[in-house]
UniProtKB/TrEMBL annotation:
Keyword Oxidoreductase: yes
Stored Pfam families: FAD_binding_3 (PF01494)
InterPro entries found in the cross-reference section: FAD-bd, FAD/NAD-bd_sf, PheA/TfdB_FAD_monoxygenase
Molecular function via GO: FAD binding; oxidoreductase activity
Superkingdom, taxonomy of origin: Bacteria
Domain FAD-binding: 3-344
Organism: Paenactinomyces guangxiensis
Protein name as annotated: FAD-dependent oxidoreductase
Keywords assigned by UniProt, alphabetized: Oxidoreductase
SUPFAM superfamilies: FAD/NAD(P)-binding domain
Length: 402
């Protein structure tokens, strides 16, 4: 196959970039290793900025026809009292809410939209295996699709293949990791009709619980543990684990033992932030988690990946005008996005440090001081950056052919 751009990975970054390029008339191939999009874990929460982008693309009305929940605020509850809330409903209308919706359905919708353009091809069950390189320039990719090995020659390869990016590894780009003190245990639980689970973190001496409502009467439950202690937790048995969660939220007493029966229902997320040392090379670009991993506190990953895609679209279109995907032309993408991503990672680090306080004196100080800080202009600025991005970005619709 021959194409202008091949994108590896149909996550939010890869799907949005595919749609924007397809609509701009660029010959684009999107590869996804799974046959079905629900085979990968996918976060369901989207920041208000993502709504704004969909509006600019003219897709928001259709997106909102899919099953979704609107989120007014993200609450941090400390020993039963609200420590602070990230209020989306204080943002300027109409993008004054976050969105919770099935990510596989949203990704499929974006792919279907892109497939309306004859210059776009989607290959599922297609695993990126090897980069084609001439000197230091990337010229395409070799993939395995079912039993076939396929060579795709391409002016640009975009690695949108997530935190364990194959493209990043194949191109020998190093990442700088910053370990956190925590891991998360996640599981889904049916939410009873009588009880609401607003988006929140509940902090108690006995532990930290996170609720992410997933719509369709399902809530994603997160439990924060000290890094590396999952085997110890498992060895104490599921009932002991249930009791720990119930001690933090007694409201779980009836439902949890009915639904959480085995650790097989749980997955563990190694919390880390990381940044690739380079995001572009000649003929290559990394976007989303392949370039940078944000901590899951405050749900930034989807938004950051989509912001990357929006900026990458503009940079790729300009590079195409110059008929070159050389490093100096692609570098603008990294120059625009790296400082903004760093800023979000910095805010998240402060949040994690605050949440992780265990010293009793500091805990008292936190309870006294944070509710006051929550009312300051500095806090509002941080909220705006988390909800609407750390920089002004708009979809460049002038490139669209229709
Ligand atoms: C437990 C958990 C909960 C989270 N919850 C949220 C949330 O609610 N909101 C939020 O904003 N963020 C959340 N995140 C973070 C968010 O999921 C990521 O930041 C986001 O998905 C990154 O998007 P992406 O497009 O860069 O990559 P991904 O979404 O990771 O997509 C990468 C795609 O590449 C494919 N792929 C990988 N390797 C290959 C290969 N070799 N060949 C072909 N295809 C390949 C994968 O199958 C995948 O489909 C969460 C993360 C975790 C782990």
């Amino acid at each position: 196959m021959n194409t202008d751009v091949v994108i590896v990975g149909a996550g939010p970054g890869g799907c949005v970039l595919s749609y924007l390029l397809a609509r701009s008339g660029v010959k684009t191939v999107l590869l996804e290793r799974h046959d079905r999009l629900d085979r990968e874990f996918r976060g369901y929460f989207f920041q208000p900025l993502v709504l704004k982008f969909f509006e600019q693309m003219g897709l928001l009305n259709d997106v909102l026809k899919m099953e979704h929940e609107k989120v007014d605020a993200f609450h941090f509850i400390d020993h039963g009292k609200t420590l602070f809330s990230v209020r989306f409903d204080d943002l300027p209308k109409p993008f004054n809410y976050g969105l919770i919706m099935s990510q596989p359905l949203l990704l499929q919708f974006l792919i279907d939209q892109a497939l309306q353009y004859p210059n776009f091809t989607y290959l599922n069950g297609a695993i990126a295996k090897e980069l084609i390189q001439e000197g230091s320039t990337i010229k395409g990719i070799k993939i395995k699709r079912r039993k076939d090995e396929v060579t795709i020659k391409s002016g640009l390869v975009v690695g949108a293949d997530g935190r364990y990016s194959t493209v990043r590894k194949l191109s020998k780009i190093q990442i700088e990791k910053e370990q956190h003190k925590f891991d998360f245990i996640w599981f889904d639980m049916p939410a009873s009709k009588d009880r609401k689970y607003p988006l929140q973190i509940r902090i108690e001496n006995k532990g930290m619980l996170i609720y992410i409502p997933k719509g369709s009467q399902v809530v994603q439950v997160g439990w924060v543990i000290r890094k590396g202690t999952y085997p110890e937790i498992k060895s104490k048995g599921i009932e002991h684990f249930q009791k720990q969660l119930i001690a933090v939220d007694p409201g779980l007493e009836e439902e949890l033992p009915k639904h959480l029966l085995d650790f097989k229902q749980c997955s563990v997320l190694d919390i880390q932030t990381a940044t690739a040392k380079q995001w572009v090379r000649d003929g290559l670009m990394l976007i989303g988690d392949a370039a940078h991993i944000a901590s899951p506190f405050s749900g930034q990953g989807n938004s950051l990946a989509i912001q990357d895609a929006v900026v990458a679209h503009d940079v790729i279109m300009k590079a195409l005008e110059q008929k070159s995907f050389s490093l100096p032309l692609l570098k603008r993408y990294e120059e625009i996005r790296r400082p903004a991503v760093l800023q979000i990672q910095r805010i998240q680090k402060r949040q994690a440090d605050l949440i992780g306080i265990s010293n009793p004196l500091l805990l008292q100080l936190r309870r006294a001081v944070i509710p006051l800080i929550g009312k300051t202009a500095l806090f509002t600025k941080m909220r705006d950056q988390l909800a609407l991005g750390a920089q002004q970005i708009t979809v460049k619709t002038a490139y669209f052919k229709d």
